[in-house]
Design a protein that fits this description.
- The complex is a heterodimer of chains A (157) and B (188).
- Chain A is an all-alpha fold.
- Chain A has six helices and no strands.
- Chain A has two domains: 96 residues, Orthogonal Bundle (Helicase, Ruva Protein, domain 3), CATH 1.10.8.640; 33 residues.
- Chain A is elongated, with a radius of gyration of 36 Å.
- Chain A starts with a helix and ends with a helix.
- Chain B has a single domain, classed as 3-Layer(aba) Sandwich (Glutaredoxin).
- In chain B, strand 4, helix 3 and strand 5 form a beta-alpha-beta unit.
- The longest helix of chain B is centred in the first third of the chain and has 23 residues.
- Chain B is elongated, with a radius of gyration of 21 Å.
- Classes of the chains: A mainly alpha (157), B alpha/beta (188).
- At the A-B interface, helix 3, helix 4 and helix 5 of A face helix 1 and helix 4 of B.
Chain lengths: 157, 188
């Protein structure tokens, strides 16, 4: 059993491995922390849908170094992201900006939920309504009473 | 109201069907990254020549002010598709007379020299981008990539990946024609 646990732990080791290599890291822990946070919001352009913080691609490494270089030069987080965005476009942002071109992206989910509530609610409400009974027309009334009378007459026999 | 609701499934089917139909298009590349450089000025960069090569280095000022738009190709000796593309670019340079400039991306100079000696050197100028920093300025996602830059330094066209195969060559030729990068009468 102990061997099994040991094997399991060894198996988990690769998960702890990090794409950020020691030689990239800044000595200033505050700046390094900011660099890590920025890197998590930037998409790797080679292995798409991975952030550059966890990507082993060469370009991702270059971008990580660039982020740190800009931070050391005194840029704010926004300035660093703008710097990279100017070169690679909105595509490098893992969180797309809110602008007219992305309104559909941001608001479609909310719109769909609202439509769903509206339509679903509408359907359910209309089902719940009891069906209203209308009075028979006088013609129908006559027919029914005629039938009833005939039945009674038959029963009396 | 009931009619409106009963029409909704059809509407949803049409919208989703249209989306799937659009996704079926074999020419659509979901990995394609829209380039921000198109119609924008080419980035500032200044690169040393490749050590051991007589071809001079490359900077932004070498690209602008030419009588025709020029072609900038990012290549590396370690990049296998570049080898195939090299023949195509050489033909464009020698037969069609395009002005070809190279950025040697993250390549050991001695490897680049050997590669160019083996295959020939169609480049007018080659800048050695050892750090990959110029590559970032160009918004590079990998090698090879090829750009067409006009006389004012505006990037007209970007081709990601090797210009190899009839479709790619046709697209690139068309872009060269539209940009006016081909001397009169060539490329037809």
């Amino acid at each position: 059993m102990r061997q099994l646990i040991f094997a399991f732990c060894v198996g988990l080791l690769p998960l702890a491995a990090n794409a950020v290599e020691p030689d990239e890291m800044l000595t200033n822990p505050v700046l390094e922390q900011r660099a890590r946070e920025i890197s998590k919001d930037l998409r790797c352009v080679v292995c798409q849908n991975q952030d550059i913080d966890s990507s082993n691609a060469g370009v991702a490494r270059d971008l990580r170094l660039l982020v740190r270089e800009r931070l050391v030069a005194g840029d704010t987080d926004t300035q660093v992201i703008e710097y990279i965005r100017a070169r690679y476009g909105d595509y490098v942002l893992l969180k797309p900006p809110l602008e007219p071109a992305t309104y559909a992206l941001w608001f479609a989910p909310i719109a769909f939920i609202l439509i769903g509530i509206f339509v679903g609610g509408g359907v359910l409400m209309s089902r719940r309504k009891p069906e209203t009974l209308e009075d028979l027309s006088s013609e129908d009334e006559n027919t029914v009473s005629e039938i009833l009378r005939q039945n009674e007459a038959r029963d009396a026999l | 109201m009931k009619r409106l609701i009963s029409g909704l499934p059809l509407l949803a089917a049409v919208i989703f069907g249209g989306f799937f139909f659009w996704g079926l298009n074999p020419d659509r590349d979901p990995n394609e990254i829209p380039s921000v450089l198109i119609s924008q000025p080419a980035p500032e960069f200044d690169l040393e020549p490749v050590a051991g090569l007589e071809t001079p280095g490359l900077s932004r000022s070498d690209l602008v002010g030419k009588e025709r738009p020029v072609v900038v190709n990012v290549f590396a000796s370690w990049c296998v598709p570049c080898r195939a593309e090299h023949a195509v670019l050489t033909r464009f340079a020698e037969r069609d007379g395009i002005r070809l400039f190279g950025i040697n991306y993250k390549d050991k100079p001695e490897d680049a020299v050997r590669w160019l000696n083996d295959l020939g050197n169609p480049y007018e100028r080659i800048g050695s981008d050892l750090s990959g920093r110029a590559g970032i300025e160009w918004g590079l996602s990998g090698v090879p990539e090829t750009f067409i830059v006009d006389g004012d330094g505006i990037v007209l066209f970007r081709y990601v990946g090797p210009v190899v195969g009839p479709d790619a060559v046709e697209r690139f030729t068309e872009a060269l024609k539209q940009a006016g990068a081909l001397p009169n009468g060539a490329g037809s």
